[in-house]
Amino acid sequence: MPNRWWLLPLLCAIFGAVTLTTIPSRAVPSTTSLHAMMERLYAGRFWLNANNEPSVTVGIMDKQEKIEFSCKYGCRARLYQRNAEPQETGLEPNYSYTIRRLRSQLGWARYWLIAFATPHYEEKSFLTLQKQWEARGFGIHPLTTGGVFALQGHLFDTRKRLGSIAVFAKREDAQKRADQLENQLHLPIRIHEELARRPQIRMLLQGGGRIEADDLIEIRPRRGLIRVERVEFGRGYRWHRFVTRHFDGPLLFTADRYGKLTMIQQVSLSTYLRGVLRAEMPSSAPLEALKAQAVCARNEILAKIATRHRADPYLFCAQTHCQVYTGALPQEARISRAIQETRGVVMTLPNGQLSDAPFSAVSGGHTEHNEHVWSTLPNPALRGKPDLRQHSPLFENGIGPFNLKRWLLDPPDAYCRSERPKLRKKFRWTRTFSPDKLDQLVNRQFPVGHVKDLVAEKRGVSGRIYALRIVGAKRTLRLHGELKIRRLLDNLWSSMFLVQKKLDAQGQIQQWKLIGGGWGHGVGLCQYGAIGRARDGQNFRQILKHYFSQIRLLKLY
Question: Is 214 helix (H, G, I), strand (E, B) or coil?
């Protein structure tokens, strides 16, 4: 959107001077400069609070022109300036305030195509993969993401070596090239973002008066919570909507890479976990299942410090991409107890490093190897395995073409199997598409023409498809990536499915039928499987040691 701020003098000359009412404020000595605050937001680090507990930054929403909020008991606002001391002002209780974008400058990001990634300490694996890609004719540019930090005498290295084969200035160009290479090489290519130039923004705090600020506004409640209107939830999914959320602050308002407003919460890890557990697992779940979820959520944060959102002024987002975070909903004793009783507990690998700890809702009865879902090396902790109440020789070596139909249509008793109608539909499900609908879904992203066939070229150990061949009238497409496949096919619950075609008398396709199981990628913790195991008497340590192989539980703080 072009900036129009230069029109203000002209409008004043035509219509007369414009009078702005200023919210009563005062300049305050800046203990932390604007430059230092922005450096901190983009640093890719956490901080320890007074209780020696990590505090992180969470991006609540972005791409906003305005954000409306109120404080039940009033707030303090600090508005930063580039060439002056910040201004501090009090905001009235139960009064609606708005922060608006006045003008801004876009940030610049580089978009690297990543062929492979290895833990930083596995240099030999990196060099081996580098030689393989060079033999294919690609030059490898090494990148490093992540960081090194210490907690209570334990040193952790979250760094990863990335093998890049190209770089682009625009994401759409990077995505187009990634799709071409995946189809050509039959290998997954992912995109890694790095910020090249920070965005800038001029903002207006409005409500009973007007104050402008450069790049950063900080809102702190005197006590109680900050109420924020129209917070986006479930972006990219069918349950996408806007809701009112409450946060206990502080909230930071700055520019996202697009030059729009983004809102960030700086929050302690325990407070963050309360907002995650409410969203990720029912509070009615058994306590031991909630404890297992708390440990996983803590691990996912600490193990991925500085590896995500490298072009954003926060460490993690509040969406499914990281972990769903809902802010400060009413306190629930069971959730608080689960977090307190696992305070500081993490999972480590045999080499002492933090384990990745992904989770998904319903495994469908079998979890998945990490390398079949993401373009990463096999992780010894993330091995797919049956999640059944009784041993079944037919499925002990995984799910494949020889037993997939039996697995989906006549499944054994799994820990995540439920008689509740809503959950039963996630354990096993069916989706049907007319030929026109399937053509529309595929061709809005990939122009293949009329779809003639869907062929699973590669399946993981759980039966999930991670390489799908789409045969079209114009061309054949090979799609790599469990999530890409699900999203292309109208956000399927999972990629564990088989394809059936209903033909008419002339052999033309009348209907596509996908028979599937599970909800989510299936790697790591099965959330409803954990609930089933807890109901059968297992404690959180037993639950975690089933879903994560070779891990050790360590109390950090």
Answer: strand
